[in-house]
From TrEMBL:
It comes from Defluviimonas salinarum. This is Hydrogenase maturation protease.
Length: 87
């Protein structure tokens, strides 16, 4: 599985993005090939100029440090999507 950040979306002065686990699988059978993929949200990340918070898909808070350790570009990608005027 691979962690990927969906494109951040701006909503007024906040930025929201889903951090997802993705995977792809392929197989070969006699006379045929098969493939399947999956995508599962791990966290919803919400950023403002004051803070960045994360929750799981059920709305429970997550430690941002743990997510950043698993996906180091998280903060940079979210901050790059924030409005330049701060709101």
């Amino acid at each position: 599985m691979t962690l990927r950040l969906d494109p951040p979306r701006r909503l007024g002065g906040i930025v929201v993005a889903a951090l997802c686990e993705t995977g792809a699988h392929g197989w070969r059978l006699p006379g045929a090939l098969g493939a399947a993929g999956d995508k599962r949200p791990v966290a919803i990340v919400i950023g403002t100029w004051d803070e960045i918070v994360a929750v799981d898909p059920q709305g429970q808070p997550l430690a941002l440090a743990d997510l950043e350790a698993a996906f180091p570009a998280l903060r940079d990608r979210l901050e790059a999507a924030m409005p330049q005027d701060g709101g």
